[in-house]
Design goal:
326 residues, alpha/beta, TIM Barrel, eight-stranded parallel β-barrel, two-stranded antiparallel ribbon, 14 helices, 10 strands, 43% helix, globular
């Protein structure tokens, strides 16, 4: 049965690729937002709080996808610190922004699973139990917060080959979904790789599917950058066929690449100048035009922290163009 299902999925994807060679849709209006990671902002030596407020006040972003990192929320077992998430949600509420809050162990930004040191030594079963306890704490704390319009459970869980995480466990995901639905009525978003995910399970179990779109990525085994050949129409038609196989759910772009995918080798190769060559201002503009042709009406841009980092290092063109988007 599993073999048959795999054959069907591969066949469907092959058909999609063939059909997607047809002309892309005309550019359509897209409601843009950003994913913001305080951890990544700090990695770039930015003041994450000031940067976050600039995103709200200067860029006028009204759609946010925010993480809730386990190792920040519960650095010691049973000792919770919600200050980071409180700050972000308070700012969003004040700015009149709507928020997707990500819950669970797997969250946006490498290494995907941000598990506190004390929990890493636990068995998988106990770790799952502790994850459910954390999710309950988060949802109960914020279930009356008007800024949150949806919960995202885990991040690209079906892209199990990527990140430092435990193996995929669909039964546990069902438990997470059941818990959140029991605690709150707002929609549940599940996310998947736009290029390599089947989207089938995410459409079956979530209320909304979020997909990632990356045009240029670094491939470690090949030690090379790959430019994905998929045209914009590919994503739309893949969604149409995936819905036919499952349920007719809304699809949004939860991650649109708007920064370079760094190889993380010699630091000299990752200077601002090198990064500007890997992902130019023209690439930035082309990706916006690309997502407008996919047929999806909501997209969260990936890399807002990087725009501020580049602006501080003599490359303000990304941030200046972003100001015209929102």
């Amino acid at each position: 049965m599993k073999r048959l299902r795999s054959i069907v999925i591969i066949t469907v994807i092959t058909i999609i690729i063939f059909i997607s060679l047809l002309k892309d849709s005309s550019p359509a209006e897209v409601n843009f937002g950003v994913t913001f990671s305080p951890r990544y902002a700090e990695y770039l030596n930015l003041d994450w709080q000031k940067t976050y407020l600039k995103i709200l006040d200067q860029l006028k972003v009204k759609n946010l996808r925010l993480p809730s990192y386990w190792d920040s929320l519960e650095p010691e077992e049973g000792q919770y610190d919600f200050s980071q998430t409180d700050f972000m949600l308070s700012g969003a509420k004040k700015a009149g922004a709507r928020v997707i809050l990500v819950v669970g162990a797997r969250q946006p930004r490498w290494p995907e699973c941000h598990i506190p040191l004390w929990a890493k030594k636990l068995s998988v079963e106990i770790k799952h139990q502790k994850t459910l306890e954390l999710i309950q704490k988060v949802v109960q704390r914020y279930n009356d917060n008007p800024a949150i319009w949806a919960w995202q459970i885990e991040n690209e869980l079906y892209a199990y080959w990527f990140g430092s995480c435990d193996p995929l466990d669909k039964k546990f995901l069902s438990e997470e979904i059941g818990l959140v639905k029991k605690l709150d009525h707002r929609p549940i978003i599940l996310t998947d790789s736009g290029e390599w995910g089947s989207w089938v399970d995410s459409l079956n179990y979530g209320d909304i599917l979020g997909i990632s779109i990356y045009r240029k990525a670094y491939n470690s085994p090949l030690n090379a950058y790959l430019i994905y050949p998929f045209p914009a129409r590919y994503y739309y038609l893949k969604g149409v066929l995936a819905k036919k196989l499952t349920k007719d759910r809304k699809i949004i772009v939860s991650e649109l690449q708007m920064e370079p995918w760094l190889a993380m080798k010699d630091p000299s190769e990752n200077t601002p100048m090198a990064q500007s060559r890997l992902f130019s201002a023209e690439d930035f503009k082309k990706n916006i035009e690309f997502v407008q042709k996919t047929g999806f009406d909501e997209a969260y841009l990936w890399g807002v922290e990087w725009w501020y980092f580049m602006a501080q290092n003599g490359y303000p063109e990304y941030l200046e163009y972003a100001k015209t988007i929102f």
